Amino acid sequence: MKRIALSTLSLALLGAAGAAHAQSTVTLYGVIDESIQYVHNANQANQNLTNLFAGNLQGNRFGLKGTEDLGGGLKAIFQLENGFNVNNGKLGTYNGNTKLFGRQAYVGLTGDSWGTVTAGRQYDPLVDMVQPITADNYFGSTFTTPGDVDNNDNDSRTNNAVKYVSPVWGGFQVEGMYALGGVAGATGAGQTWSGAATYGFGPFSAAAGYLRMENGNTAASRGITPATPTGAWNSGVTSDGVFGISNINGAYQSSKSVSIASAAGQYVTGPFTVNLRYSFAQYKPDAFSSFQNQEKFNVAGAFVGYQITPAALLGLGYTYTHGSGDTSASYNQVSLGGDYSLSKRTDVYLVGAWQHASGHQRDAGTNSVIDAGASIGSYGNQSAASNQEMVSLGIRHKF
């Protein structure tokens, strides 16, 4: 990472303007992750796909973050982070909208004794605390939940969010977030709230949390029933939502709310890293929804990583996802990966996965119930077949 520190002369000039504070820093950073990818049964016609895909292990990004020492253990902090597609140079899109700083944009204060408070567009506490001890943290989208129905792959960010992160007390830490819907006369419309806790002791760590995202339909919040149901998540609400990725959960964009509970545990012994996780995601309808019965997803996952050498990591992951309620379908996914560091900032990787789908799911386009099709991870390659395979060979560079 490149650190751009204010020089003594710059500080002196700023001080003359009445704006100087000692020990201020700004950091420019980023990630470029690119791969050649092959997908068997990539679409509804069960055709194969070979293309360049950006962002397997980590999403492509660049950003600025900084701190200013205010004295007495108090610091001002900020972060501005942009997502982009290295293949075409476009900005990242979130729930169909393009944003300059779509990944993160916040400002706040942090204190040594009391913790950190930030406000802006941010990750939720489950992403901050639970996701880092799951397989997704090591091998990204190929190892995550099909359709990312539980936001394990960070597809959703939260606008208008105020977040508090505590200091670490004997290995224990908590985090809470509330995002204001900002709808006049309907305080709860479009709100998002979340909380999580983590504990680490030696080689063991565990985390758990809860996230609730509300759709910001102002008419529904006032008890007005529409003539026809809507088909989409309101893009103006606080949460981006976790929809439209595939038919696994794409048909539930018009949910009144989405609730996610998640827990994970990890143990490191010698060269081995083992983690287990479980999540429960609930998509609830209302009179505005295009579906009538709530859909629930139970997700269980396991991961084993083996550090062959300080530079070489192998990983094996398994994810079981079961949808029930509105429809009933199961997705079994096995993922394999290898990552080799060429330096502290550059690595190459080979990842692959196989998934088998069974049962029935609701089609996002026609709203009808169809045979479940396989869709690995959070890529959105929706197959009409019950099986799908994917292999990616890539390079990642951090700066």
Instruction: Flag low-confidence runs.
Output: 1-21
Quote the average pLDDT: 90
Given the structure, what is the number of helices?
A: 4
Shape: globular
Report the portion of residues in β strands: over 45%
Strand order of the largest sheet: 2-4-5-8-9-10-11-12-13-14-15-16-17-18-19-21
Q: What integer value in Å does the Rg equal?
A: 22 Å
Helices and strands, in N-to-C order? EHEEEEEEEEHHEEEEHEEEEEEEE
Helix content: under 10%
Instruction: Please report the total strand number as a whole number.
Output: 21
Overall tally of domains: 1
Relevant CATH superfamily: Porin
Question: CATH topology, what is it called?
Answer: Porin
Question: In terms of topology, how is this protein built?
Answer:
Elements: E1 2-5, H1 8-16, E2 25-40, E3 49-54, E4 61-71, E5 74-83, E6 93-94, E7 97-98, E8 104-111, E9 115-122, H2 125-129, H3 136-139, E10 158-165, E11 172-179, E12 192-201, E13 204-214, H4 218-221, E14 257-269, E15 272-284, E16 295-309, E17 312-325, E18 329-341, E19 346-362, E20 369-371, E21 387-398
Antiparallel strand pairs: 1-2, 2-3, 2-4, 2-21, 4-5, 5-8, 6-7, 8-9, 9-10, 10-11, 11-12, 12-13, 13-14, 14-15, 15-16, 16-17, 17-18, 18-19, 19-20, 19-21
